[in-house]
Design brief:
Elements: H1 11-19, H2 27-38, E1 43-46, H3 53-64, E2 74-77, H4 81-94, E3 103-106, H5 112-120, E4 125-128, H6 130-138, E5 149-152, H7 155-160, H8 164-172, E6 179-184, H9 189-198, E7 203-206, E8 217-224, H10 229-238, E9 245-249, H11 252-264, E10 269-272, H12 278-289, E11 295-299, E12 313-316, H13 323-330, E13 340-347, H14 351-361, E14 366-368, H15 373-390, H16 395-398, H17 402-409, H18 414-432, H19 450-456, H20 463-466, H21 469-483, E15 489-494, H22 504-514, E16 522-527, E17 532-537, H23 541-548, E18 552-553, E19 556-557, E20 560-562
Parallel strand pairs: 1-6, 1-7, 2-4, 2-5, 3-4, 5-6, 8-13, 8-14, 9-11, 9-12, 10-11, 12-13
Antiparallel strand pairs: 15-17, 15-20, 16-17, 18-19
Helix pairs in contact: 2-3, 3-4, 6-8, 13-14, 15-18, 21-22, 22-23
Length: 615
């Protein structure tokens, strides 16, 4: 393999790289750096997350730009502020021997005035998120007329986050004569379209096969019932005492709930999501990077910019809809030559998605079993013994206390001391997993029997888990499916759908929260783009409408009303392959609200007054 000197980089840049401890370039650096240095031809580079893409474009650009020129010569666009800050930090490290060089990071969630002042002082290299970059262009503060290089980093993610229009507007403000470097982990059609519209005969650099996962990541899936998802997650964490990983969730609310529950139960965890301020995000990330946290619970968007090389596990609390997002997630582990494990919690109705993923990543995803309570206890005990065995002993501070300690314990045998030590440290853990049920299900997804269902609550371990109304909601939903429709049910429409991140379980949880004094039977649930229909017992109609219309979802008010007409329904919320009805397009002609576009309400409804409680 080449050295950095052999790639043609300047002496100052090579010295900075070596100061950081790097001796040899990665494969993507080995291919991209000479190409950028020797040619002005546009480049499309495809490489997985964690392969050194930042250095692949920043090192040659630092070697080529004119430091005496105080105009902005390089603009790097990244999907998130975390990734942008990480790129800017790396560029600062690579350029520390370049006297007079300045880099600026511009991103939302921070003072725009400070960023404007920094730009006016003169910088040669700007790293920005699309929204803030476009804002500064429109304010006539960010001048891209002298740009020589444009870098689109994690371009596929920027497109998936909806930045297509912003990117188009930014690129139109750059000169025609420039070199464009596009770096991406995947090559979707949108990337090919950008390459066609904004790049001139680009050369493609590909490291490994397109759209496949890292070779040193092992993939496992665990088949469970939906209601056991959280408890299964805890067992997977408990059976790996030294775990250092990211738990991926679909929505911000789910991220908050999972992280809050884990922290309340004593796990070393915290959340990373879009509702955090920049200061809060930095605090969480610093704790995670310093290993003060074992677990980071995050959404896919928030995890962009999480640059940690030694993660042991990635846990998928829910599978993403897009298989390429799974590739991004699993690529967070198994970096820098280390091995990693990607673990997926799969509902029995989602098993077909595993086959789709296997085809996408070109690797086998092994079916594994959620460990039993005894297996977890054994792992935890051995981990505790390892800690005792490897503890460093400094007798000087404890020397004055040792005689009294020896005297106090002299009547115990060696075996008795070990038994008491293990009991003191381990009894609560053993008690928690006493009579813990089997959480695994077969591929058919059938229930495991009456005794197992009775024992399931024992695995929750505390009052919140044992008596969670969401679990009762799951049982009500299942019971209503088994018995079919009923004349005492009313069809309701709510302004929450797939685009708002709602799921049947989340909707049931919201209904439970809105009707805390009642046990509302829930029937069929149909999820659409921006709204949903569900059946609920007619006797609770007034309470349900009043309570739901006082709720919020993701900061927006919830509105519910009785559906006029029958509303879409065809006998259940199970899709053709066992998935939720939310995975299917609505059918025409099945009620007044039925349409294939999944449109929103025609006008903003008034919030009805909360009815009196006549109980």
């Amino acid at each position: 393999m080449n050295t950095f000197e052999a790639l043609g980089l300047t002496e100052e840049v090579v010295r900075a790289v070596k100061d950081m401890g790097f001796e040899q370039p990665t494969p993507v650096q080995e291919k991209a750096i000479p190409q950028v240095l020797s040619s002005e031809r546009d480049v499309v580079a495809l490489a997985q997350t964690g392969t050194g893409k930042t250095a692949a474009f920043s090192l040659p650009l630092l070697s080529k730009l004119d430091i005496s020129n105080k105009n902005i010569q390089v603009i790097v666009l990244s999907p998130t502020r975390e990734l942008g800050l990480q790129i800017a930090k790396n560029v600062e490290e690579y350029s520390k021997h370049l006297r007079g060089f300045k880099v600026a990071a511009v991103y939302g969630g921070a003072s725009i005035d400070n960023q404007i002042r920094q730009l006016k002082r003169g910088v040669q290299f700007v790293v920005g998120t699309p929204g803030r970059t476009l804002d500064l262009i429109r304010r006539k503060v960010l001048d891209l007329s002298h740009i020589q290089w444009v870098v689109l980093d994690e371009a596929d993610e920027m497109l998936s986050m909806g930045f297509t229009e912003d990117l188009n507007a930014i690129l139109k403000n750059t000169p025609d004569e420039k070199q464009t470097l596009l770096f991406s982990a995947t090559m979707p059609k949108e990337i090919a379209r950008i390459a066609k519209n904004y790049m001139n005969d680009p050369i493609e650099i590909s490291i490994g096969a397109k759209n496949v996962s890292a070779t040193n990541v092992t993939h496992e899936f665990f088949m469970i019932q939906a209601r056991d998802r959280y408890n299964a997650l805890k067992r997977l964490v408990d059976v790996h005492p030294k775990i250092y990983g990211i738990i991926f969730c679909r929505t911000r609310q789910e991220t908050k709930d999972i992280a809050d529950n884990l922290m309340q139960e004593g796990y070393s965890a915290d959340a990373l999501h879009g509702d955090l301020s920049q200061g809060q995000r930095s605090y969480v990330m610093n704790r995670f990077r310093n290993r003060q946290l074992q677990l980071l619970v995050a959404t896919d968007v928030a995890a962009r910019g999480v640059d940690v090389d030694d993660l042991t596990h990635v846990l998928h609390y829910n599978l993403p809809d897009d298989p390429e997002v799974y590739i991004h997630r699993s690529g967070r582990t198994g970096r820098a030559g280390k091995s990693g494990i990607s673990m997926i919690l799969v509902h029995s109705r989602e098993q077909y998605k595993i086959r789709q993923l296997e085809n996408k990543i070109a690797k086998k995803i092994t079916k594994s079993l959620i460990p039993t309570g005894m297996e977890v206890c054994e792992k935890q005990l051995l981990s505790l013994i390892d800690k005792v065995e490897n503890v460093e002993i400094d007798t000087a501070p404890i020397e004055p206390f040792l005689p009294a300690t020896y005297e106090k314990l002299e009547n115990f045998t060696r075996e008795e001391l070990i038994q008491r030590f293990v009991s003191m440290q381990f009894n609560s853990f053993l008690q928690y997993y006493k009579n813990a049920p089997d959480l695994n299900v077969s591929g058919r997804g059938r229930d495991r029997g009456r005794d197992d269902r009775r024992g399931r609550d024992r695995d929750r371990g505390d009052r919140r888990d044992r008596g969670d109304r969401r679990d009762r909601g799951d049982r009500r939903e299942r019971r209503s499916r088994e018995r079919g429709g009923s004349k005492d049910y009313t069809r309701f429409k709510v302004n929450l759908g797939r685009k708002q991140g709602i799921s049947p379980k989340m909707l049931i949880s919201l209904i439970n929260k809105a009707t805390p004094q009642s046990s509302v039977d829930i029937g069929e649930i149909d999820l659409y783009g921006n709204f949903s229909f569900f059946d609920a017992s007619s006797q609770h109609q007034a309470e349900l409408i009043g309570g739901m219309n006082q709720q919020e979802w993701d900061g927006e008010g919830v509105f519910i009303e009785v559906a006029r007409g029958k509303g879409p329904s065809d006998g259940g919320d199970r899709g053709p392959r066992g998935g939720d009805r939310g995975d299917r397009k609505p059918r025409r002609g099945r009620g007044e609200y039925s349409n294939s576009r999944g449109g929103n309400f025609s006008k903003k409804p008034r919030r009805p007054k909360r009815p009196r409680n006549n109980k």
